């Protein structure tokens, strides 16, 4: 695992997500046939990486919203191999890391602890125009650069939530969720979970912000 910063602004620990109500996505880039802007070299490479891994995606037009919110160089994931609910606009690097995490961390952990596959990932969404709670600083969600994950459904019918599973008496659920968290810390810039603060008691927050790496 990469060396993690010890000191970060207190606001980061307070919340990277703000209030979570289960449906936090704000205005989405519209489904449109308008001509897409030319991709930067970095974005072209990222899109090529997605395609080479068999990830299906739809490129979205660049959008700027009020209050500095934006979705630039974003995609919407169509198929990463693991069905995922409530995915909206995501920057290409975030989408690429998420696709890798599902294949390299999520599914192997489910097989290891339960002998099953994850059949569905439940999320609170990606894009949402809001500030970090208690600050005037724009959340990574306002840049389509973060995802909040709340629960996992296994092929055998078991549903594991971050809220109830993190300290569950079932040690398999505890170990499973901690493996997912640890693997995310090796792939995303900032990872927050139930041990970060009360705002994250019911979900994992993964983002590609420039203030990382940080894992809590």
TrEMBL record:
UniProt domain Extensin-like C-terminal: residue ranges: 45-216
Top-level taxonomy: Bacteria, Pseudomonadati, Pseudomonadota, Alphaproteobacteria, Sphingomonadales
InterPro entries membership: Extensin-like_C (IPR009683), Zn_M74/Hedgehog-like (IPR009045)
Protein's organism: Parasphingopyxis lamellibrachiae
Record-given protein name: Extensin-like protein
Domain of life (superkingdom): Bacteria
A matching Pfam family: Extensin-like_C
Entry coiled-coil feature ranges: none
């Amino acid at each position: 695992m990469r060396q993690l910063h010890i000191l970060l602004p207190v606001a980061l620990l307070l919340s990277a997500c703000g209030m979570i109500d289960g449906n936090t996505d704000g205005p989405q880039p519209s489904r449109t046939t308008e001509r897409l802007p030319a991709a930067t070299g970095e974005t072209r490479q990222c899109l090529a990486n997605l395609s080479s891994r068999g990830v299906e995606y739809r490129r979205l037009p660049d959008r700027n919203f009020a209050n500095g919110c934006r979705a630039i160089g974003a995609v919407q994931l169509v198929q990463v191999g693991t069905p995922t609910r409530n995915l909206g606009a995501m920057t290409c690097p975030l989408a690429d890391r998420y696709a890798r995490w599902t294949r390299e961390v999520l599914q192997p952990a489910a097989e290891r602890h339960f002998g099953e596959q994850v059949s569905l990932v439940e999320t609170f969404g990606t894009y949402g125009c809001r500030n970090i709670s208690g600050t005037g600083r724009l959340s990574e969600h306002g840049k389509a650069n973060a995802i909040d994950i709340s629960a996992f459904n296994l092929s055998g019918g078991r549903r594991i939530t971050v809220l109830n599973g993190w300290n569950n008496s079932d040690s398999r659920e505890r170990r499973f969720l901690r493996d997912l968290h640890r693997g995310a810390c090796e792939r995303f810039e900032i990872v927050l979970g139930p041990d970060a603060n009360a705002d994250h008691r019911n979900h994992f927050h993964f983002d590609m912000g420039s203030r990382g790496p940080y894992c809590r």
